[in-house]
Design brief:
Strands 2, 5, 6, 7, 8, 11, 12 and 13 form an 8-stranded antiparallel β-sheet that branches. A 5-stranded antiparallel β-sheet has the order 1-3-4-10-9, with no helix packed on it. It starts with a strand and ends with a helix. By secondary structure, the protein is mainly β. The model has no long low-confidence stretch (mean pLDDT 93). The radius of gyration is 16 Å and the shape is globular. It is built from 2 helices and 13 strands; from the N terminus they run βββββββββββββαα.
Length: 197
């Protein structure tokens, strides 16, 4: 399954080759593969590559959100071309309850492109994951660009509105069984179970 981020957060076409996000099943989880232009703007975060980095959204990053629409529980994945990452588990809009989870994440960086592979363990996905959105951010200051797979529809953009990637109402359906097969059942997650105890 492949997705292309072809619009800005408010529905305008992007001015470069779109970011591509591929999702493939693996026994241990979902393999997320990114192919994207490399802007190198802003410069690399000051954190160690291959480790979680808080506030990664202030840098060049590709993000994916996996939502359980019924519960408003979701997994936020942020991947940086310099090798840092950030995973958040949220229960309710913007209400993170777990972060800095470990991740297998590999990056290949070229002069003008980068590719990333991350294996997202099934235990990180909230029960009944059924919606999805993805985003890309790059640039500094006035040139900062916010791009969305499923943008805010232009007729719903208010004057002076800022980009907000937690607008869960604009996420669209994601049927994991299309990837994993009709007989597949999402594995139970001890991590998410711990939230309800």
């Amino acid at each position: 399954m492949e997705f292309l981020i072809e619009h800005t957060w408010d529905g305008l076409p992007v001015s470069h080759e779109p970011v591509s996000i591929g999702l493939r099943p693996d026994n241990a989880g979902l393999l997320m593969e990114i192919r994207a232009p490399f802007f190198n703007d802003p410069p690399a975060p000051p954190g160690e590559p291959g480790k979680p980095f808080g506030g990664l959204w202030d840098y060049e990053v590709v993000e994916a959100f996996f939502l359980s629409d019924r519960s408003e529980q979701y997994l936020e994945v942020e991947l940086c071309p310099h090798g840092q990452y950030l995973l958040l588990l949220l229960s309710g809009r913007r209400k993170a309850w777990k972060e800095q989870l470990p991740l297998e994440f590999e990056v290949t960086r070229m002069e003008t492109r980068w590719e990333g592979k991350a294996l997202l363990p099934w235990s990180y996905f909230p029960p009944c994951t059924d919606k999805f959105n993805a985003f890309a951010i790059h640039g500094s200051g006035e040139e900062r660009k916010y791009e969305a797979l499923y943008p805010v529809p232009p007729h719903q953009v208010q004057e002076g509105q800022e980009p907000d990637f937690h607008r869960l109402e604009f996420f669209k359906d994601l049927n994991l069984k299309e990837l994993t097969g009709a007989d597949w059942k999402q594995p139970e997650s001890d991590i998410w179970k711990s939230l309800t105890k």
